[in-house]
Amino acid sequence: MFKALMVSPSRSGIAGRLATSLTTILCDSMLKRFPLVVRHINYNLRGGFLVRPLIIAMILGFAGAILSTTEAAVPVLATWVPRWLFPSRSDPQVAQIILGAIAGSVMTVVSIVFAILLMTLTLASMQFSPRIIVSFAKDRTTQWTLGFFVGTFTYCIAALPAAHTYPHRAEPVITVMGAMLLAVLCVALLLFFIHHISQAISVNYIVDNIASDTEQAILEMMPKSSASPRFVVPEPPIVNGDEAPIHSEESGYIRYMDLQRLKVVAKQNQVSVEVTRRVGHFVPMGAVLLNVSKQNKLTPELRIQLLAAFDIGPSRTLEQDVEYGILQIVDIALKAISPAANDPTTAITCVDQLCRILIFFASREPFEWRLYDPPGYLRVAAPQLGLERLVDYAFEQIRVYAKGDAAVSLRLLRALRDLGAAIPEPALQRVLAERGNRIMAGVAERLGEEELTELRIRNEALQVAATSANFV
């Protein structure tokens, strides 16, 4: 017992220092991940039913409270409103009735309308794709409509106490007139919202909206426009036997990776870092996420700093994941050409939008997946998403499921031809010609000679373009 008491102080001191060190490392990790967390929260809240409607509701609520308080403090303001607009100025119950009626009716309407909207979205998600609900949550018209309806309610509730008979009569005339104007605005917004939502649930609008969001993601990743579209071949991964692996500490999809932060950390610690997974890939806990060039420099603090550059979550987003936007449109196309739906027109629309995304992707300066600092010394290397892989993601599944549909196969061949015309690179021309041969091999199994005639003509145009490009 005496020996135990003699040893315990030193042990407790070591344990205390260890706990302090771990606490410091954890706090440092949280601080380093803070910018990434803020970015992800901003991305989610920017397109949801929370931030913009909440801001509008709070502004209108404060406006109702401030306006009614100012009017009570300066009664002469009520004389600015003509009597023919608001003749009753001696009975506060009239103001109470008006404000209460507007507040109750507005909330009743908004609850019914948005309940119907959610039911409509449920049916649309079953018909097209469950991932389209995210695009509806980002719709500005829906957010503004919800914000003004809830804001009118908060305005009336905040102004209601200003209309009273004790200890003296007070009727906020200007405040009530503001509530009536907001009620008229809500009626106009309701009509516009019904018109807007009737168009928003059409498949053309949905696909175009997804394509626009995907182009925006491409624009944020690759802001510079290229003088001429290029076909960039991804560089092979780095193979080095003297690497120390860093395993993922959580399971989920890589939604965002901060390569610039990885470069700074790698330079500070005089190492090179190789990322093994691409944005959009699923990483199970315990899988290798990073490789560090020098094993002797891989400290716990460096491990935390490198992992803090990744945002991993349960679902994919369009922050850096261009492939995810393409897959959403492909999902809609596959459901459209399924025997249950049998809607080739929708699939053709999807093929057109996919071709648009691919051409836009090729028109931008390539994203720097390999970062050097100083020049010539590789600091960070991540898997590159090339145009050839995007072409496969966009068209391969549709090609497989559209073997018996001549219209969709024709549109696939035309999309490949449009892509080749926009990017006259010999390497891409060969890729497109090979994909055209795949389409012809598939449709030859199910279509007759009459349907194959026009398909052969379009495929021959692809082969001629590839042959001509080889001689240039």
Concise synopsis of the structure shown:
By secondary structure, the protein is α+β, with helices and mostly antiparallel strands. Helices cover 64% and strands 7% of the residues.
Description of the structure:
It contains 15 helices and eight strands. Strands 1-5-3-8-7 form a five-stranded mixed β-sheet, with helices on one face. The longest helix has 45 residues, at 2-46. Helix 2 runs parallel beside helix 5 and helix 7 (203-221) packs antiparallel against helix 10 (322-336). The chain is globular. It has helices at 2-46, 51-73, 92-127, 133-137, 140-159, 173-200, 203-221, 259-268, 300-307, 322-336, 344-362, 387-401, 406-422, 426-443, 449-471; strands at residues 244-247, 252-257, 273-275, 282-283, 288-292, 310-313, 370-372, 378-381. Strand 7 and strand 8 (378-381) form a beta hairpin. The protein is an alpha+beta fold and 472 residues long. The protein starts with a helix and ends with a helix. Among the domains are: 46-201, no CATH class; 322-365 and 385-471.
Instruction: Write down the Rg.
Output: 31 Å
* Proportion of helical residues: 55-70%
Strand order of the largest sheet: 1-5-3-8-7
Main structural class = alpha+beta
- The beta-strand count equals 8
Alpha-carbon distance between the termini? 90 Å
Largest sheet: 5 strands, mixed
Write down the overall mean pLDDT: 82
Query: Ranges with pLDDT <50 over ≥5 residues?
Result: 1-12
Strand content: 5-15%
Figure out the total of helices: 15
What form results from the Cα inertia axes? globular
Along the chain, the helix and strand elements come as HHHHHHHEEHEEEHEHHEEHHHH
